[in-house]
Amino acid sequence: MNTSPQSAPVARTIDSAADAQQAIAHLENIMDSLLATVEEETALVRSGHLREAAALEAGKTDLARLYMLEGERIKNSQDFLAQTLPAALESLRKRHDLFHALLQINMTVLATAHAVSEGIIRGVSGELTRKTSPSTYGAGGRANAPALSAIQPIAISRTL
Known about the structure:
Layout: H1 17-46, H2 50-55, H3 57-76, H4 78-84, H5 86-132
Helix pairs in contact: 1-3, 1-5, 4-5
């Protein structure tokens, strides 16, 4: 039985108990590999190692593609699986729910890192604008905000 996450799932339908067990095992193996990759990415992002985290993207994309293909195959055979292996199907559903909860943690970490980096860039941009524009005061004695023409764009490289 080949349950390697790198092997491409067969697009045929599930029509035997053996096929069903193999498909479930394959999907679980893919989920394990994807989860390990996502957990590694989360740890790297949390520790600030963004280059290393970005290097995981290609493998994560391939695993996600395999996950979607095998998940669709199982979904299309759900009636057969419910009749043939109801306990295995229920176990897979529970594992799938846990899998999604763990993916949500990863997405939260990535969104937080994105928001923090965006805030840093906006702060640097605002500080540069403040330093390069003249300080003037308005009629009420308060400092005027820099004119929109004084704001200098910041060029950033999206390649880590």
